[in-house]
Write a structure and sequence with these properties.
The chain has seven helices and four strands. It is mainly alpha-helical. The protein has one domain. α2 crosses α7. The longest helix is centred in the last third of the chain and has 38 residues. It is globular and about 70 Å long.
Length: 246
């Protein structure tokens, strides 16, 4: 049976060494560029004609636009719509990365299954909303860590807890996406290996893992969309905290 973790291996496509730094162009970087290219093509192709009766691509783009705009409006308020381009870009990048990783290609790669990628995205969101909070509210943003209505005697205990819960946001945000994508692809690879192994002896026993693999594939497509959705919703909630502080 093939190693189910081999699919997550980083491979150097163009080795680049500058001093002691390894800046090689890898398969992960390649698929990030492909994800950006696919998102760019979708938006350009879907908005080129501006038809009154939208075609398929235009309908997809308009649906994605309204979907993310609704998330921002509902979770960050109308004030959060000024940051819609960032949230929309983040949603499309993660969604494309998740969906492209589902393609059954021998050289395919799911870059969102690596914690370094998801943690970098989460840290970008965390630093961005924290800076935004201080820009909008100045030092008053520190009162965000003081629970409203809490007794003053409890503040020495509650404030560190609030600060800690705020600081672990990028960890929970990144680990959720990374774990779901990695676990799902590993399970699919394991059951696909069962199919090949059992089929080599007798075709009938391979029917069960084949059915499970088909079901897992459909489930993984749903998870790929759901994880992009959750990442985007939490980003909007963090934006709401930075803008409204409650």
């Amino acid at each position: 049976m093939a190693d189910p973790l081999h699919q997550f291996q980083i491979q150097r496509l163009v080795p680049i060494q500058i001093g002691g730094l390894d800046l090689s162009f890898t398969n992960s970087a390649l698929w990030m560029l492909i994800a950006v290219g696919c998102a760019y093509w979708l938006l350009i192709a879907g908005t080129r004609q501006h038809a009154l009766v939208p075609g398929r691509l235009q309908s997809v783009v308009e649906l994605a636009y309204e979907f993310v705009a609704g998330l921002v409006r509902d979770n960050a308020g109308k004030e959060g719509l000024r940051y819609f381009p960032l949230v929309f870009t983040l949603f499309l990048f993660i969604l494309m990365g998740n969906m492209l990783g589902m393609l059954p290609l021998p050289f395919g790669f799911t870059f969102t299954s690596h914690i370094i990628v998801t943690f970098t995205l989460a840290m970008g969101v965390f630093i961005g909303v924290t800076v935004l909070g201080f820009v909008l509210h100045g030092a008053h943003f520190l009162t965000f860590f003081v629970p409203h209505g809490a007794p003053k005697a409890m503040l020495p205990l509650l404030v560190p807890i609030e600060v800690l819960s705020y600081c672990v946001r990028p960890i929970s945000l990144s680990v959720r996406l990374f774990c779901n994508m990695m676990a799902g692809h590993t399970m699919m690879k394991v059951f696909a290996g069962f199919i090949v192994t059992l089929f080599s002896y007798w075709a009938v026993p391979a029917i069960a893992p084949l059915a499970v693999t088909v079901a897992l594939t459909g489930f993984e497509f749903a998870v790929a969309f759901l994880q992009a959705y959750i990442f985007t919703v939490l980003t909007c909630i963090y934006l709401h905290d930075a803008i409204h502080m409650h």
